[in-house]
Design goal:
The chain is built from 1 helix and 7 strands; from the N terminus they run αβββββββ. By secondary structure, the chain is mostly beta strands. Strands 3, 4, 5, 6 and 7 form a 5-stranded antiparallel sheet that branches. Strands 1-2 form a two-stranded antiparallel ribbon. β1 and β2 form a beta hairpin. The chain is globular.
Length: about 110
Amino acid sequence: MQHPWDRVQGLTPDGNPPDRAFANALIKHDLLRGTTQVHRLPRDAAAGEAVFVPSEGARAEDDGYAVAYVHNPDRGAADLVILAAQAFTGEPVARVHLPGRVPLGFHGSWIPDA
């Protein structure tokens, strides 16, 4: 039986948010310049929140990579998509096919070695 809290949260019975709550694009906002760049993903893909990973010795604010889990409905699994932040709308630097689904809404942080 479904718990009433699941209906309130809009979760499916397996505890995952429905894909329709997520977009098939990643967006980069430049608050200083007032500009926005959009990286479009395949039509039925659903992207989670991207994490920024700075390049070693980074000098500019966006010198690094945007890393996000993207649900690939054709495979029924997730891809780890890596974008160069300074070429945000271009092709991914890498796309790693993961063997299973990563729940959308899964959060992470990048912490470099000390």
